[in-house]
Design goal:
The protein is an alpha+beta fold. It is built from eleven helices and 29 strands. The protein starts with 8 loop residues before the first helix and ends with a strand.
């Protein structure tokens, strides 16, 4: 573990005491003489007031408790043993004792987190992992009033959820623009760590567009975090990250720690993503996710040298383009380097994801890219994974969570098959839940041969329209290695 250097609070206190009277000393080291010092009054005073932001925020942040009636073990508060992963997601550190078996019908609290009120009639945004698998959700407001909440929609990929309580005249938070925040800017985190309601901690923006490299839910990663050193602990998940105006700039989501408690690194989902996701969940029940339709690699010095790229030092190198995609429409090719979306520079994958997640299928965007060391900008229409611009609603074909590509004759011949579609771009959903992985080639569904995405959609619609309670796609197929597999894709949920 790396040692962390602590800056003495005495120096900070000195800045506060001197205020506007503080002087700057400028040394003169000419000809080896002892340095002389010039007094100047140009240094601004150190003035930072967190009270306004705190007062505007605490009433908009709630405590969320999730309960389940499923049988599970509960533990007392004495004895040894510590599980930091469990404690981060589910609140206070759990001290282990001999387990007591709960009755199946007895509600058991299995989650603790925070949420942010976004409308005066009771809509609240939180993390998906705070309310995942909950049979009952209880919301505690800052005035100690308690409500039971219902789930409006969830999005595992971004780890966001929208819930609602039956209340009026609440104090919603004011949204700020996360794209305007700067590294080094003061921020406050407001939440309920360890069940301490309405706790406010302060820090600065440490970095923007940070990716942790993997989604904590195990699915597709929609990550472009704001990194801060404001202290977050178990129970802060789903709470507010605000600027000094009290405007929401992010939803606190994760900490980076070996112990499960704060150790200097905290991460929040920026409002550019939050606003789009919760608007979609409220309007459609599911997120309208647009994709560019190409595989990319972050440009670095080694790749730039190999590809003889001199016109840019940053961007996303295209490694492949998908059929029926925006990238195909724009004429993007392998070895092109994407440098901006709608004139906003994208230096890494996280920034590209953040920009694309502001839009829906059907929206027009411009893409700036470098080809043959010349910068080009083209405009096109964003599409979804299925290659269309249709708005999708909960319970339709898009919830399979992937795209289906038609196979070429060479692939069929190599694998010794006469038909099939390739599963690609799994984002989470029924296909992922069944265990199917990217690259799997579906040859039959419920005994019917498939050759195109339309074949899959037709069978899906037949199943969903049937009166059967058990809605299942029995899928058979083959991986590129030649191994045959059978899967049952549950559509009932």
């Amino acid at each position: 573990m790396k040692k962390i250097t602590i800056i003495s609070s005495v120096a900070l206190a000195a800045g506060l005491i001197f205020g506007a009277q503080a002087k700057e000393y400028i040394g003169n080291h000419d000809k080896g003489k002892e340095p002389s010092f010039i007094l100047t009054s140009s240094t601004p005073s150190f003035e930072t007031d967190f009270t306004v932001a705190a007062e505007k925020t605490v009433n908009a942040v709630v405590c969320i408790k999730s309960y389940t009636t499923r049988t599970r073990n509960s533990y007392g508060n004495q004895g040894g043993g510590y599980d930091p992963f469990f404690d981060f997601f589910f609140g206070q550190p759990q001290q282990r004792q001999q387990p007591r078996q709960q009755k199946p019908s007895e509600p058991v609290q299995n989650g603790l987190g925070s949420g942010v009120i976004i409308s005066d009639d009771g809509y609240i945004v939180t993390n998906n992992h705070v309310i995942a698998d909950a049979d009952k959700i209880e919301v505690l407001l800052n005035d100690n009033s308690t409500y039971e909440a219902k789930i409006i929609g969830t999005d595992e990929a971004s780890d966001l959820a929208l819930i609602k309580i039956d209340a009026k005249d609440l104090s919603p938070i004011v949204f700020g623009n996360s794209e305007n925040v700067k590294v080094g800017e003061w921020v406050l985190a407001v939440g309920n760590p360890f069940s301490f309601n309405s706790t406010v901690t302060a820090g600065i923006i440490s970095a923007k567009a940070r990716s942790l490299g993997q989604n904590k839910q195990g699915g597709m990663s929609i990550e472009s975090f704001i990194q801060t050193d404001a202290a977050l602990n178990p129970g802060n998940s789903g709470g507010a990250l605000v600027n000094l105006k009290g405007e929401l700039i992010g939803i606190n989501s994760a900490i980076y720690s070996n112990t499960g408690s704060y150790s200097g690194f905290s991460f929040a989902i920026p409002t550019t993503i939050v606003k789009k996701v919760i608007t979609d969940l409220r309007q459609y029940g599911t997120v309208q996710r647009a994709v560019l339709g190409c595989q990319v690699i972050e440009l670095n010095a080694k790749i730039a040298k190999e590809k003889n790229i001199t016109a840019t030092k940053f961007g996303l190198l295209i490694a492949g383009v998908t059929d029926r995609s925006t990238a195909k429409e724009l004429g993007l090719q392998e070895d092109d380097v994407i440098t901006a979306i709608n004139n906003v520079e994208v230096h890494n994958h996280a920034q590209l994801v953040e920009q694309l997640n502001k839009f829906r299928p059907g929206d027009q965007i411009s893409v700036t890219f470098v080809r043959d060391n010349k910068s080009i900008t083209k405009s096109g229409t964003l599409r979804n994974l299925q290659g269309s611009t249709n708005i999708t609603k909960k319970g339709d074909f898009s919830e399979l969570g992937c795209a289906f590509m038609k196979l070429g004759a060479d692939t069929k011949q190599h694998l010794g098959i006469s038909n099939g579609v390739k599963v690609t771009g799994i984002k989470g959903g029924a296909i992922k839940d069944s265990g199917i992985k990217d690259g799997f080639i579906i040859t039959e569904i419920n005994g019917t041969a498939v050759n195109t995405s339309d074949d899959v959609e037709r069978i899906y619609n037949q199943i969903m329209k049937s009166d059967d309670d058990d809605k299942v796609m029995f899928v058979s197929g083959i991986y590129p290695t030649g191994k045959k597999y059978y899967y049952a894709v549950n559509l009932a949920e």
